[in-house]
Q: What sequence folds into this?
């Protein structure tokens, strides 16, 4: 391994740790509560972040329904303060805000893709400082 790829591996490992630490214990809440999973795909520096490539990386099928989705809208509810929030709720909102901040400060080319129509795989994608594609995955359920 040359020095440059070793540096990128360390950067990716640090990014992976930061994203895992920021999302640990958080559940994205819809009709289904689901944790976050983080993936960094090696050798994807020249891979475009688009629907077809995300389906390929996440082992989907070209026939799968997939749509673009707005990043800020995805996190609009979990980062919103409410009058009725308990201290636990307020801490969760703060943690979601921190996760959003870590994502926005760590990744470029951020895009969100949703695969499926009822049980939905959510892929928050972006480019790591190394250039590799990073995916923060969760699920939603909408009936």
A:
């Amino acid at each position: 391994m040359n020095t440059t790829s070793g540096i990128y591996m360390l950067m990716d490992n640090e990014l992976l740790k930061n994203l895992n630490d920021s999302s640990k214990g958080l559940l994205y809440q819809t009709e289904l509560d689901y944790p976050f999973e983080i993936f960094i795909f090696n050798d994807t520096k020249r891979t475009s972040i688009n629907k077809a490539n995300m389906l390929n990386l996440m082992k989907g099928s070209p026939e799968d329904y997939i749509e673009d989705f707005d990043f800020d809208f995805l996190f609009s509810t979990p980062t919103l303060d409410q009058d009725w929030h308990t201290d636990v709720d307020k801490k969760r909102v703060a943690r979601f805000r921190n996760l959003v901040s870590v994502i926005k400060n760590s990744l470029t080319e951020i895009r969100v893709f949703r695969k499926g129509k009822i049980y939905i795989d959510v892929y928050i994608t972006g480019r790591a400082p190394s250039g590799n594609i990073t995916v923060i995955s969760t699920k939603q359920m909408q009936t």
Remarks:
- The chain has one domain: 3-141.
- Strands lie at 28-29, 33-34, 37-41, 66-69, 108-115, 119-127, 133-141.
- The two ends are 49 Å apart (CA to CA).
